[in-house]
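The instructor's notes for this session suggest beginning with a concrete chain rather than abstract definitions. Hand out the sequence below and ask the class to guess, before any prediction is shown, which regions might be ordered.
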Amino acid sequence: MPTPLLAGNWKLNGARNEARALAEAVAKGCEDVDDREVMIAPTFTALCAVARVLDGTKVKLGGQNLYWEDSGAFTGEVSGPMLAETGCSYVIIGHSERRQFFGDTDYSVAKKVGAAHKAGLAPVLCVGETLEQRENGATLGIVETQLRHGLVNLPQQGYGALVVAYEPVWAIGTGETATPEQAEEVHSAIRGILESILDGEKAAGVRILYGGSVKPSNIDELMACPNINGALVGGASLDAEDFLSIVHYQES
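After discussion, reveal the predicted structure:
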């Protein structure tokens, strides 16, 4: 089984001093963590401050997005090499909020995944369906399309660092969470898609995270599912106590 990854996506929250204090609390609370990996993704303006806090700790740093060119006339964008220089080892790509509000498409997501690999960053590729798509029975088809299209620019050697995050759009920030059975159904399908691309051993090593209103109260049952290898946590990652409770979930 791959090493579980518990990742905090801070979204547009936390100015520098707030981010530093939260990172310090998370790092201190992870000093005894040995059998799982922890990552936090602050805003771009807080990355340098948080990187200094995390230096020498067990907590990894991630970016929330990137552009697919290394440099150039792309006002407002941040590149993979810039994230890597800051100290990031992960980058979140294709989050539903990026797709919904900022025009990310399967095409641009694929370019970003390729750019992340080129920069030495582990891509956290997000996939997930809307409520309407689920109600229409389209969940597995939507997820497969997003996944296959998102991986077209990732070479075979890049799959060792790949992380996939299943985030049902209807569960993000709503307080609603997919049941363990719903989540496991999609995670199992994602594993099957990966097995059609890779050999079995490599596919089994790709971590598939669940995201969507993950809380201390539901993390244990989610992590008990065989194909759930961690969580991408939104709102609960902004509270150190809540996030650390998630990090220290109890294995069944």
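Then share the key points. The CA atoms of residues 44 and 63 lie 7 Å apart. The chain has two domains: 1-60, 65-228.
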